[in-house]
Please model this.
Amino acid sequence: MKKTYHGSCHCGTVRFECELDLSAGTSKCNCSFCTKTRFWKAFVVADEFQISRGTDALSDYRFGSNTIHHFFCGRCGVTPFGSGEMEELGGKFYAVNVACLDDATAEELAWAPVTHEDGRHDRWDRAPTETRYL
Model:
């Protein structure tokens, strides 16, 4: 069941809210970005996501195909979410950093299913051979 979650970067300059069902699944991938930042994501369609504060503090980092915006707080450096557009995900989407959800309970996080993706080899439909470090 979808629930309204509130999230933020570490220093609280950037704040957002989203409608999300953690029990519907989350994902971790082994691409260079997600591995280095330990980005744990849940996808949200654009109309169920809103930045409530700190838009002016966000910096945008893109790499590879330059299609995904990896936003981070220019003050503390934390990546609370990214965004992009893919028809397979319903058009414009946000990839929320699950670790930045301020009001998700420990139980909700522990029970959230995690799918592993082999982003390093652009094989998003498969898990990498080793996932324990993700």
User: Anything to note?
Assistant: The first strand starts at residue 3 and ends at 8. Residues 32-37 form the longest helix (6 residues). The chain has one domain: 3-121.
